[in-house]
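Office hours follow-up: a student asked to see two folded examples consecutively, so here they are.
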Amino acid sequence: MNVIVTEREMRRHEEYTCQKCQCSTTQLIEKAGASLYRDFLRYKQEEMLKSRLLVLVGPGNNGSDALVFSRLAFEDGWELTLLMVDPNRDWPSSAKDCQSQLALDALFSLESIPDLPSFIAPFTIIVDGLFGVGINRPITGKLKELIEVINRQSAFVYALDIPSGIHADTGQVLGSALKANVTGALQYRKLGHLLSDGMDYTNELNVLDLDFLFAEGEPLRQYLDFSDFLAGYKPRKRRSHKYDYGNILVIGGSPGMMGAPEIAAMSALRSGAGLVKVAVYTPDIPYVQPVFPEVMHTFYGSVEELNLAIAQSDVILFGPGLGRHHPLATALLKKLLEMKMPLVVDADGLAYLKNELANLKNPAELILTPHPGELKALLDQDLVDQQKTPEKQVESLSALGATVVLKAHWTLIATNSDSLYMTGGNPGMATAGSGDVLSGIIATFLAQEKRGGLAASKGVLLFQEAGRLAAADHQEESMIASDIIAKISEVFRKCHDKLNISLNEKARR
């Protein structure tokens, strides 16, 4: 259920299920249509006897799912209208049953409708069964007109598997796409639900379990949400010392950007680090902004002057606000890599790492946190390579042993063995300093967990949940990075509350 697939992989899982379970495609369609209808009823059961339901029926398997859906709706008493792209198709038997039960005045061919706006206007609930995961060319002509008319309406739209017009692998709009209020995904999330425009068109997503089998040898991408953070939460032992929870050194800052390492440092402390220092280049001392008294500082005018601070640290966070012209940055980074220090490289630090990639072999735990633009610069690749999934785009980095945290409106964590996706962020987190907050959290978990993939996933989940709580308080438009830091403690409170509930339930049993 928490797997993400491409269109090709989905076909392969369907075929594998049919082979192993000795079932037919028609049986899968019947199960899919029934599951989608049950999910739809969670939203619109009360309107059953007072609303007209328009079902859009496409020419492929998505249309077959729509016809099974329609048959069940008709049997339940819905006043049903079908708008069909290809009414003469040789449909599966279950789909034919629907057509035979409906009155002729409830069946319409798209090509027969002269005035689409007038036809669509009476319908307040629309089921989108036009195109599923197989569409790969732009929608044009009357289909495009239909979609644009519906998008201008205020109707509730329920999409079957994926909104029509969204590419299942890239999330791109193919000419035009229907904006759904709710999408019922069959068995697995599709990459297109997450990437590019997919999230804005999918909106609320429900993944419906059809008991498909996962074909051997296919890629395993997993979806994580805050429940995974809650499940892995462990409280501190009473016998604790600050050095049990990580000593972190932040190397960053430059004139005009001295706040970045301070934000990262405070974020690390709020997320549980025992001790955090910011390394300040001596010529930059006049620009220091020591906002948080809990954050310590160390000063250096040469690489050697940081030897003691590095030796005392469990993790180095390299890059926040560092700028592109720091005279010691390249030498410092080389030293850290040679020492095999556990390292998080963020922001400007990635620009210095670019020249070290050729020599980067079997590093210690190394976490890189680029956004797509930084990834493009780091690898000299196209900003969006539509021929590759996101994990393939960062494969050259994960193959070197790095954990890559690719930050967009979704987040990918890629290692040489795992691909983990998360979508719990919100647009309010697109604000200056937000990335510094995340890098500080990840550095804390790297110090505590010692494993890059686990540290990155816990860090992103905590960050996204804190961002959700901040948006609830401040609204997305007015959020700032410090709002996210302020909510980290509330996230941990939720963890404690859940733990206490579980302990009380065990005690009652």
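And the second, which I mentioned at the end of office hours:
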Amino acid sequence: MSVPVSVLLDESNLRPFSEALRGASGALRDGQERLDVARQAERCLALVNVEHAPEFVRSRLSLIPAMSALLRDQRWQAPLAASREIAGALAYFTDQCDLIPDASPQFGLLDDALIIELALRHNLAEWREWLSFDAARKAQRDIAHVLTREDWLSMSERQRSQLAQRPTWKRFLRPVEDGRFLVH
């Protein structure tokens, strides 16, 4: 039997998690340390059994390889604040001193998942841009070795600007093979 549970956490409920994230982020001194944390998080993830963890936990922990890849991405070079906070979430995940002990059955990784969620929400624009950037590089291997974060952000801004200049009704049209348009 499973029982769906929804929990709404307000700012005061999230305070211990936010403070833990700040502490983990602040403890990282340099870029090399952030890279080391990224590698360590991937190794730790391989040792964690999330089979019986709640979906929220599984889905957030599944983001660890991508978070690690963002930190290791030489072509992206995320801003210091974003990379420090994302690395801080990974550092918290690897640390044995948690708000909820990891050994606690089924719920030991809940705090780790919440910390990951907070770090990504605080850096949502950076996270989404990197995901798009990474997908584009993988789809177009010929540009992968030359495309940088600055190039990508510049292209994205141009595309948004061009879309904003189109009449509103044309923004939602998508061409269909026979020359007609489909509104989506």
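Two things to take away from it. The beta strands are 173-175, 181-183. The longest strand covers residues 173-175.
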